[in-house]
Design a protein that fits this description.
The protein is built from 12 helices and 8 strands. With 302 residues, the protein is an alpha/beta fold. It has a single domain, classed as Alpha-Beta Barrel (TIM Barrel).
């Protein structure tokens, strides 16, 4: 059983100018997120660019996140890989470093069948020395989503304890809460409708946007816990302009990670650099970013 709940940033990995993992900068970034009030951190997830990291680098990122968190909040390590044996090995290594849980993406790219996806999680859950969160993200993995009954069955068999439900819709949250008890932790995992996700029963929110909206995400979670809808709407309204920059392509075709780095850089925060093939924003794009966010006070640092 776990008590994971709240705002959990999918923490970004910091690279230096040559594209090498910068462990000190990664730790400093996680330290800032914790000081801004987040209740947990996901390391080496999608926004941590795990697909651009080799196995040793992923463990280094987890180690850096643990150093930055310094025991103040739980650190959940991204250990999912396309191969079951590699996922198990990464999970064991992350556990040895001190991660309290593993977030495991659907086995990706080869378009596995539903039975293969379920078999993957059964094997990983049975072998894992730490609790497993299913990263239910079919859009990015080309794997079938695990439907609520399948997740409930995995939970009932003691193989998984949580899910990051990464869909623009929230009905999956409602259905999971109806099929499981309070000990199964449901996190809304998109940046499209976190308020609605938590209203539907999600125990928290995991997203890359929290790298640049941690305080407001913590406030959104707290307001929903207090059933204070106007306060929650106000918190979400402060995050919304950042989301719209990407969903409405206001800067053109850019990576959300590049956009977050630019925002942090404009705020004078540790931002690191992009690792190829991801590109930095151009000077023109940074100027447009500033023009949108500065008048709203979203580049100010408290």
């Amino acid at each position: 059983m776990v008590d994971w709940a709240g705002a959990y940033p999918a923490a970004m990995t910091m690279f230096d100018r040559e594209g090498r993992v910068d462990e000190d900068a990664t730790a400093a970034h996680v330290d800032r997120l914790v000081r801004e009030g987040v209740q947990g951190v996901v390391a080496a997830g999608t926004s941590g660019e795990f697909v651009l990291l080799d196995a040793d680098e992923r463990i280094r990122v987890v180690r850096a996140a643990l150093a930055g968190a310094a025991g103040r909040v739980p650190v959940i390590a991204g250990t999912g890989a396309a191969a079951t044996h590699e996922t198990i090995a990464l999970t064991e290594r992350a556990a040895a470093e001190g991660a309290v849980g593993a977030i495991v993406i659907l086995p990706y790219y080869l378009k596995p069948t539903e039975a293969e996806v379920i078999g993957h999680f059964r094997a990983v859950g049975a072998a894992s020395p730490i609790p497993v969160m299913v990263y239910n993200n079919p859009a990015n993995s080309a794997a079938p989503a695990l439907e609520p009954p399948a997740l409930a069955a995995l939970y009932g068999d003691g193989l998984v304890v949580s899910v990051k439900s990464t869909f623009p819709t929230v009905h999956q949250v409602h259905e999971l809460r109806a099929l499981t008890d309070e000990h199964f932790r449901v996190f809304y995992g998109s940046f499209m409708a976190p308020l609605e996700g938590m209203a539907g029963g999600a125990h928290g929110w995991i997203s890359g946007i929290l790298n640049v909206a941690a305080r407001d995400a913590v406030e959104l979670y707290a307001a929903m816990q207090d059933a204070d809808l106007p306060r929650a709407r106000a918190a979400w309204a402060r995050i919304l302009p950042i989301k719209l920059l990407w969903t409405r392509s206001q800067l053109g075709p850019v990576s959300d990670i590049s956009m977050y780095r630019a925002i942090m850089r404009l705020r004078g925060q540790v931002a690191g650099y992009c690792r190829a093939p991801v590109l930095e924003l151009t000077a023109d794009q940074v100027g447009r970013l500033r023009a949108v966010l500065e008048p709203l006070g979203l580049l100010d640092v408290a």
